């Protein structure tokens, strides 16, 4: 299975790049959302290192943990890879905003994907920011739900 396990993603030339996981992200996004993730020429390396939008993924456990965050998402949340990957994804929102976040997670689990979400998040420094026009989708591998991913290109300080 290409899904990163225990926060570990394959490396290629020292970067956080896993072509199999990238294929899972893209194929599920295309199948569920109906649009390509990153365009037809996107590569795993580009998505991780250079994409101008955030991409995050968490596993399918009862308390999901981040398994992927591209560099744009790491900058947005002010965590590096080692800090963010493995962290419970619920901690991306303040306690009083977690119910709203959980409603999104549950809706995506039920419906396959959701678009247009807007939510308040918190960075490592305590900076609060809005993520806007979020698309979130299920990651399904060999018929099994293995996690969820989200992408957004707009965020602003609260």
Main attributes?
29% helix; Beta-Lactamase; 6 strands; 6-stranded antiparallel beta sheet; globular; 158 residues; 5 helices; alpha+beta; 30% strand
Describe the structure.
Strands 1, 2, 3, 4, 5 and 6 form a 6-stranded antiparallel beta sheet that branches. With about 160 residues, the protein is α+β, with helices and mostly antiparallel strands. It is globular, with a radius of gyration of 14 Å. About 30% of the residues lie in helices and about 30% in strands. InterPro entries: MEKHLA, PAS, PAS-like_dom_sf.
Care to give the gist of this entry?
With about 160 residues, this protein is an alpha+beta fold. It has five helices and six strands. It has one domain: PAS domain (Beta-Lactamase), CATH 3.30.450.20.
Main sheet overview: 6 strands, antiparallel
Q: List the domain count as a whole number.
A: 1
CATH class: Alpha Beta
The structural class is alpha+beta
Show the helix and strand layout:
Elements (H helix, E strand, L loop, with lengths): L18 H15 L10 H6 L4 E6 L6 E4 L1 H7 L3 H4 L13 H14 L1 E10 L5 E14 L2 E9 L1 E4 L1
Antiparallel strand pairs: 1-2, 1-5, 3-4, 4-5, 4-6
């Amino acid at each position: 299975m290409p899904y990163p396990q225990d926060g570990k993603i394959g490396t290629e030339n020292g970067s956080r790049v896993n072509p199999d996981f990238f294929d899972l992200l893209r194929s599920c996004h295309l199948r569920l959302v109906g649009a390509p993730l990153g365009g037809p020429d996107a590569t795993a390396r580009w998505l991780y290192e250079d994409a101008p939008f955030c991409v995050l993924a968490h596993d399918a456990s009862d308390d999901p943990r981040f398994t992927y965050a591209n560099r744009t998402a790491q900058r947005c949340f002010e965590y590096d890879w080692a800090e963010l990957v493995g962290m419970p994804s619920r901690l991306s929102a303040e306690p009083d905003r977690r119910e709203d976040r959980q409603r999104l997670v549950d809706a995506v689990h039920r419906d396959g994907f959701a678009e247009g979400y807007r939510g308040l998040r918190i960075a490592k420094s305590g900076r609060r920011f809005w993520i806007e026009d979020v698309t979130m989708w299920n990651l399904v591998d060999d018929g099994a739900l293995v996690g969820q991913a989200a992408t957004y290109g707009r965020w602003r300080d609260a």
